[in-house]
């Protein structure tokens, strides 16, 4: 199964992305009407007039780009070098740079001159985003597309939506977790691990936790060549909990979480305290790998409760 197409590969960062066109782009006098005036009729657009020789411009630019990126598609940024494109800077009576103008519905509504502290830049962008109506961002729309695709088992469609998000927002936890989980389901643990490594250290998302647990199970699993040996031992003695536990580990590591859970529940039913409750602890890891809202986790927890409280 191809998840995100032959042309996509692993998602990469960058200001431009596939979420809603280029959120951060270089503009010109020739493109001003399309990039700013027309574009601002659908969402707010910030125009940053700058020049290569301007020190404060080099200070302000990264702060603007960071704030616009954090707005996740609610605002666009167009950067215009006034040395090469003096026309609209002149019409707006720009006398010093950096000069920033915010456009909404085809007209300027806010702005400032000079380099502001990052906190003030962030507040400026957030204020402009709210002025745009506060509708769902392109990122939220793509996450919804991914969710709907998964509901109809369109894994390729979900992967495309996640990849588009990551082209714009490379550290988006939901997109990283969702895409990593798809790679795990496709048997590509290496790509899944690469996506986990892209996530911020403090990122919290159920799919990220699920993939981390699945990778941990894979590392614990016995070699597949030994599986038949465990199965043979169980034929000889169905209460060989050591063999059943090892078999469950191997199955979980291979991604067969349902059968792994069945074997672990069997051990718990026969001897819930076996090996310091190792089967129960392993079962909880299986639930985490499947996802807390998965059918396996929901059904498995009911079965576990029935055993423990019978």
TrEMBL record:
The keyword Mitochondrion does not apply. One of its GO terms (biological process) is response to stress. Coiled coil: none annotated. InterPro entries: Thioredoxin-like_sf, Thioredoxin_CS, Thioredoxin_domain, TPR-like_helical_dom_sf, TPR_rpt. Transmembrane segments: none annotated. Gene3D superfamilies: Glutaredoxin, Tetratricopeptide repeat domain. SMART domains: TPR (SM00028). SUPFAM superfamilies: Thioredoxin-like, TPR-like. GO terms for cellular component: cytosol. Keywords: Disulfide bond, Electron transport, Redox-active center, Transport. It comes from the Bacteria. GO terms for molecular function: protein-disulfide reductase activity. The keyword Oxidoreductase does not apply. Residues 14-130 form the Thioredoxin domain. Belongs to the thioredoxin family. This is Co-chaperone YbbN. The lineage of its organism: Bacteria, Pseudomonadati, Pseudomonadota, Alphaproteobacteria, Caulobacterales.
